[in-house]
Every structure is written in structure tokens, then in C-alpha cells.
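input
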Amino acid sequence: MSAVFFYAMKDVKKNRRAFIFITIAIALSTANIIIINGLVDGMTDDLVEKTIETSSGHLSIYPNEQDRYIEGLGIKEQKLEGIEGVVAYSPRITAGGAVSYKEKSKSIKVLALEPSKENRVTILLSKIDSGETLEVNDRNAILISYRVAEDLKAKIGDDATVVFENGNTKVFRIKGILRTGTAMDMNTVILNFEVAEEQLALNNKASIILVKLSDMALSGQYKNKIVQELGVQKVKEWKQEVESILSTKETFRKISATINAVGLFASAVSVGVILYINILHKRRQIGIMKAVGMKDFQILSVYIIEALLLGIIGILIGDALGYAGTKYMEAHPFSDPITGTMSPRFYPYLLYDASLVTMLTVILASMYPALVAGRMNIIKAIWGT
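output
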């Protein structure tokens, strides 16, 4: 085998120009896989995190199927207080409505919450794009999403009229503009929980209760416990709340796999064609190698080892390029009208996956030229025919 390694190394050094092209193709293919997969995973993971941070707790308690609201809110809050492992909870009221500003109006989703409780569960009220956040005593103030502000040309400090779904109206001061990076940015207006109770004629009710646990990994166990303790029927884990995002992630991965496959195919063709041409040009050398006693398997091994050497070099370069490219894009995210910004994220498994897939592709691409070399007739090879 020492002779096999020696000849493989010597052949690589002699054909530097051709093998540089192979190395570049392998490196670019590897870097392409890392960056594209990093972009897909980074975008979806970022959206999942934003959703959990602003729109969902570790557990979400919903009304029973036949009800619109959760009844007996006060009793349920007391029971949640007594469950060990429940760090915090936040009741919310959601309703339809409209907001009018000067001569413009827009349909909205009213979201009412208690700031002191909400801040213990989510970071929603910290997502202020401009202005100030909502405080406990802000009964006449609202926060509006940046898309609502853009559509209405609304300014902080001005008054806006909110029309609730039951027809009641109330004038509020726009205290701040939110940008969460989630679907909430489309048409949401946030106000104090007590104000919504008064305007919607609700008492001791909520549309949803968000629950924060000491360990989100235990959400499945606590789901069953809360169902029993609170006597509710519908409780969702955070994974269920982001299920649509995760399914979108799988779709994006299929698209990225197709793009990566094109790059891998180009790399495989480069490796296969250049190795094959190299073998045809060295038929006499192969014949002489066989004449001095090298077996077909050893000849085949020479070109497989050549491909492995080139693959290792190309993959190492590609890993470095992919890492640098992902980190650069992570530090310089793209602007996005919905989520605000989006960028890839670097995960160690991206290197492992890209390296393994590329190496397997290189080996498969080298098999046919190597088999041609191994099976070459010794007489014809010596004569170069």
C-alpha cells in the first residue's frame, strides 16, 4: 500500500493545474451547502425563537372547544400559582376591531394583557421600535405594530380611536410602536387587560393563558398536570404552537437540498471527467505499473486515494469558506419587511453534514475512472491503445 500512496501523491503533484480545478469545485460545493443550510436553519430557528419569546409560552391554555373564553380566570391563576415548576403566567384577551387615526382606519387584532405578568413570561413589551412600552397604569395608552403605524401614517403621542368588536369605542394615546418579527406585526394593537375587560364587558375571563415553566423540555409532563389541576381541555405545548414554522422549515430544506444537489453534481462531474482524462493520458504508465506486478485493485486504489486526497483538501477549504461566509452573513443580516432581519446561523453540524455528503460524492465520482484504470488491458495500456 505504500507504493499506492506514493504513486497517488506523485500523480497529484504532477497534475497541479487540473487538480486545482477539482479542489476549487469541491470547496465551492462544500461552502455552498454550509451557507444555504445555515440560512434555512437560521431563518426558521430565529422565527421559532421570536414566536416563543413574544407570542407563546412554554404552554398555552385555551378555552374549551364550545367556549370562546376561559371561564373562572382568578381560580385558574391561583391553581397555577400552586404548581411547582410554573415560573409565571400571563392571561391575554384577543378580539377583533378597528383603529381610526385622523381620516384613515384599519382592521386590527386587539391584544390585551397585564404588563407586570406579561413581562415575566415573554419579552413582547420590550420589542419597541420607537416610543415607550406599555406600563401597568397606562389605561389610556396603546402600542401599535409598525405595519399599522405605516399604513395609517400614525405618530407617537397622537390620539387614535379603537373600535372594539362589540361597537364600543375609546380614544387612546399612541405610546409606542412595536416590531416583533412575527405575524403579530401585521395588524396588532396592544392595550391594558383591564381596559379590554371593561370595553368588551368581560369579567374574570381570558382568551388564552401563557405559561412559563422552569424547564421548557418538561412541557409534555406539565401539560397533562395542568389539564388535571385546572380542569381545562385544550393545552398546547410550544412545539405545537410553532408547528407551522417547523413544517415550513422542512419545505425550505427540500428546496435547499435541490440547490445543493446541483452544486454536488457539478463537483462530481468535475472530479469524474478530470480523473478519467488523466487516466487516458497515462495508459502507458498504468500498463507499466501492471507489468511490474501491481494488481488491478492496487491500480484502482491509486485513483480512489487521489480523489480522497483532493476531497480532503477541497472540503477543508470549503469548510473554512462556508464558516467565514456564514459568520459574515450572520453579522450582516438581510433586511426583511416581515421579520425585520434574517441571516444564517452557524452550527457545528453544518460542517459535518457538508463534509460527509461532499466526500461521498467525490468517492462515487471517482469510482468509474478508477474502475477503468484497474480493468485496463496490460498490452493495450503499454501500447497506449
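quick obs: The first strand starts at residue 59 and ends at 62.
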